[in-house]
Amino acid sequence: MVADALIYHPTVAHYLKFVATTVGRDKVLRTLQYFSRFLAWYLYRTNHPQSSISPFETTKKQFGLTRKLMRVGKFVEHFKAAAVASDAKSVDPVLRFTAIGRQLGYAGYMVFDNATVLDATSIRKFPSSQRLLREGYRAWFTGLSFSILSSLYSLYILRERSQRASRISEKDGEGVVEKKKIAKEANAVKVQLVSDLCDITIPASALKWVDLDDGFVGLAGTVSSLLGVWSQWKKTA
């Protein structure tokens, strides 16, 4: 009876939906990858032996490689999203422009990332792989920058809507409904903004544009990954 209760529990069904998605699995692996990066840095800084650090360095490397393989071909999705955004003439011009920039940036990152798969897996090493990786990080940084601009602009628009909603009579409940809708949208935008701000430290650090240690980048990546897990968990509810 206990086994049946566990097997047929709604949470188990939700979990199966979550892990059935590529995004769900990727976010979990990403969380472990960046948390391992932080732990490896922390153990090194606190003078732990290499035998204690190696498992986390290996986890970071292997999970990173696994995620790289899972991303093969994903650039098509972002090119399509950019085309869809370009065709959405009714959307606010600023949001439309930033959506196109974001998706093209992500698509560029995926193209360069996919181009280094053979080198990363040691199937075929080639000297230009590091240059391709740098170009990929530049494209990722560009995509994240557009996403941050989009979030900031969205928050500005939502604030304007909130001010207008405050002037609506709440006797018929219209103002209350509008305020709740705005609050929900603003919360989603804020979560995305925090995630992007955490993520942008990764390419910025890899390109040496900012001086951040592995501990900071690892924690930032862990936070953005957990936010991604949470968002995907809600989507599969």
TrEMBL record:
Assigned keywords, A-Z: Membrane, Peroxisome, Peroxisome biogenesis, Transmembrane, Transmembrane helix
GO BP term (any one): peroxisome fission
Localization terms from the record: Peroxisome membrane
GO cellular component terms given for this protein: peroxisomal membrane
InterPro entries reported for this sequence: PEX11
TM segment ranges: 137-158
Pfam families from the UniProt entry: PEX11
Name of the featured protein: Peroxisomal biogenesis factor 11
Species, as recorded: Lophiostoma macrostomum CBS 122681
